[in-house]
Amino acid sequence: MIKSVSVILALAAVGLAQSPQWGQCGGIGWTGATTCVSGSVCSKLNDYYSQCIPGASAPASTTTSAPPTGTSQPSTPAGALPRLGGVNTAGYDFSVSTDGSFKPPYSVPPASQYSHFTAEGVNLYRIPFAWQLMTPTLGGSIDNGFFSTYDATVQSALNSGSNVHVIIDLHNYARWNGAVIAQGGPTNDQYASLWTQLAQKYGSNQRIIFGIMNEPHDVPSVSTWVDTVQQTVNAIRKAGATNYLLLPGSSWASAQAFPTEAGPALVKVTDPLGGTDRLIFDVHKYLDSDNSGTHAECTTDNVSVLQTLVSFLQQNGNRQAILSETGGGNTASCEQLLGNELAYVKSAYPTLAGFAVWSAGAFDTSYVLSVVPNGDQDQPLWTQAVKPNLP
User: Fold this and answer.
1) What does pTM read for this prediction?
2) Residues known to be catalytic
């Protein structure tokens, strides 16, 4: 496991401040320490972010340098998710409102994107869908026509590479047509019915990860939401599925709010399989001024937020989380700051299992957060910030 991010900066023998293990030590615009404490090496992750990465018997570096040839990546601990990196491919969530209502039509993400991105190193796709499309009647059966279309997309992603994982993401904000699950809206049984059916369809494929709900927000009772999560986990396991499950908190699945809001209760959710290795926390964090993901410019790299999250997870059973939504515009500020963020995520494995940026799929290149290729040409944000930090 990586060292606690709250460790105090060490002082070199000559009295000069040095960056701690996993601390930043260089990059364009960096004005802090450029040397590392003994036992870690200042390693260049991209032009904007160099980091003190532990190395056996390695002296502290005095310059920003690339990792030595042949340096191994942290191994995957038994039972943990492997290191993942990739992209959301939206379309089946068009147009789900943040109140959980849905208005057709939807769009099918282009299948060609999966082979394109996988060839560049992507091994994770998050494919959101509207609850109302999957089960047009609340608590009813899955619509076989829609499922066939959706599953064809899932299979296109999986077939693009032998190590590719897919998050099937229920994109309804803990709601159905304006009402919160178990808090004036659908019952827990109606919600669990959907996941029971999906578990029966996808439970035999361990490369499929269940994203049980996108961005719960403004829930009247966090404890009631956590109980809903527990009941859903139980239902999925009762259906025989052993897949990894992504558990979201409240406040739009905020990575910043997680340690003090829903996190302390969610870490107590149990898995009927035993242990908690297959219960992964689902967090989001954007980089614009109001964390909405609606502006082309970025104002933060979120590293301090993610450091706090990592510390919380390590102190609560060495749990894993995945940053399943983040992103920015194709601007210089986002190229730098998103690059910093994703470099930190990559360095914080296994506590942070990986990321999926928003968004490709059925968007076009004019969308403010688009990483949709322009033909075979990648967007600048993808080239400068995302691609260098893929697994």
Assistant:
1) 0.84
2) 215, 325
